[in-house]
Structures are given as structure tokens and as C-alpha cells.
Design a protein that fits this description.
single chain, 56 residues, alpha+beta, two-stranded antiparallel ribbon, two-stranded antiparallel sheet, 2 helices, 4 strands
Amino acid sequence: MELDLAHFAIILGNASVSEAYEAASKLRIEAMNSVFWNTERGQWLDYWFGNSSTSE
């Protein structure tokens, strides 16, 4: 989503807004990876809110 907004900001000529959205996109990717990505398995896992853990 943020990358779409960054692209629209470029079209509208607003590079600083585009950069802000690109930075937000990177933060979202890092956050998602920290919760859902399992490096040992090399795959994404489901997250179970009930017990605050990922599916194994």
C-alpha cells in the first residue's frame, strides 16, 4: 500500500512524500518479517493471537 502511495506522490511531483511512504513500507516489511517469517524453515507462518505464537 505504501509503495502505491509513494508512486502517486512521484506522479504528483512530491518526492519528499514519496520518500516518507517508501520508508514506511520498509518498516512494515521489517515488522511483518519479525512476526511471520521463520528463518529456520524458510517460510511464512500463521500467527495465533490466542497464545501469541506462530504455527509450527
